[in-house]
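Each letter names a residue; structure tokens follow underneath. Both lines appear below:
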Amino acid sequence: MAYLVDRDTAEVMALLREAVTTSGLSQAAFARALGTSAPRLSTYLTGDTRPSAQFLLRARRMGRALGAAVARGLMSAPVTAAAMREYFLSDEVEWIWRMLLQGRDHLAVIAGERDQVLLDAWEAEPGTVGSAEWDAVLAAVAAHELEAAGLQAPAWSLREPLADPWMPVHPFLSPDRVRAQTPEWLSRQNIYVPARDLVTA
């Protein structure tokens, strides 16, 4: 049964719909980027529940940031995770790394420009890549890149180290060599990848 909503609620609904559209993400992915659930966002979009003013402002800011990144051809945290997930699902490990490092390189460009709108595209919380290990390495890389630039790491990237060590199989280095060549900021998270494998041309 249809019902009428007051003008203020209708405007809030319209602003949220605009934020979702501007972000370039699906409604579910945008909900995740905001740190909420898809069903919860849906109740805001239908007017069944009224969001806080803080949530509305954050949604508009995130929508603008994610849209600006797309317009510049730069990857955001959600887009990087989604690209990694695509290759995770087809078990193409080399391409998971490529997407991670491409996202990292785009973040480095953003950090260098100090553009707050684009930086907000990395404050947006990404969906899962598909495993705790890949999620952890994305978080560690994002946090390191921003902190190295003297910027604050987003809340989603600050997490506890993995409970068990994670060392992807290396084609020619022994586990001891991998450990010895892993940067300290990565080994702190119980992740072991040699520094040379994190370099892009």
Summary: The two ends are 59 Å apart (CA to CA). The chain has two domains: 7-72, 77-198.
